[in-house]
Specification:
One of its GO terms (cellular component) is cytosol. It contains 4 helices and 7 strands, in the order βαβαβαβαβββ. It has about 160 residues and is of the alpha/beta class. It folds into 2 domains: about 70 residues, HUPs (Rossmann fold); about 50 residues, Glutamyl-tRNA Synthetase, domain 3.
């Protein structure tokens, strides 16, 4: 298996110590396993993303001696590809459109907090007909994760994660 890690900073300012740490860990992990690290610029916050911040991130990584393979990837320019994959997940039955309002989501968070539970979306749109959606409400796409039991993954760094 070929290891490909990525570092995905948001270009809304200078690279901070936490971002540098993440870049270093990802770079070391890739190098240790004979793999490569990609740089993906999370420039979807168009109002706050700047070219100066992108340049500063590149310069900071070079100064730290952390290189990446290939051209940096712009998240924004790949938005249509991501939307295409999301639509395919819906078409395959692995995701669904959720029409919850910000107010409904806030209510879920508050209820969970009051009950001492961790915040979790309640799945109210999981099996509903999108025809029931409120007029004008823009949906988000949610993955259909198991509703019962615990989801377990095997992570190469952290081991078994639940």
């Amino acid at each position: 298996m070929s290891i490909i890690s990525r570092f995905a900073p948001s270009p809304t300012g200078f690279l901070h110590i936490g971002g540098a740490r993440t870049a270093l860990f990802n770079w070391l992990f890739a190098k240790h396993h004979g793999g490569q690290m990609l740089l993906r610029i999370e420039d979807t916050d168009r109002a706050r993303s700047t070219k100066a911040a992108v340049t500063a991130i590149h310069e900071s990584l070079h100064w730290l001696g952390l290189d990446w393979q290939g051209e940096p990837i712009s998240q924004f320019t790949r938005a249509e590809r991501h939307a295409e994959v999301a639509r395919q997940l819906v078409a395959d039955g692995n995701a669904y459109y959720c029409y919850c309002t910000p107010e409904e989501l806030a209510e879920m968070r508050e209820k969970a907090k009051t009950e001492g539970r961790s915040t979790r979306y309640d799945g109210r749109w999981r099996d509903r007909d999108p025809g029931d959606a409120p007029t004008g409400q823009v949906p988000v796409i949610r993955l259909k994760t198991p509703q019962q039991n615990v989801t377990v993954i095997e992570d190469l760094v952290q081991g078994t994660v639940t």
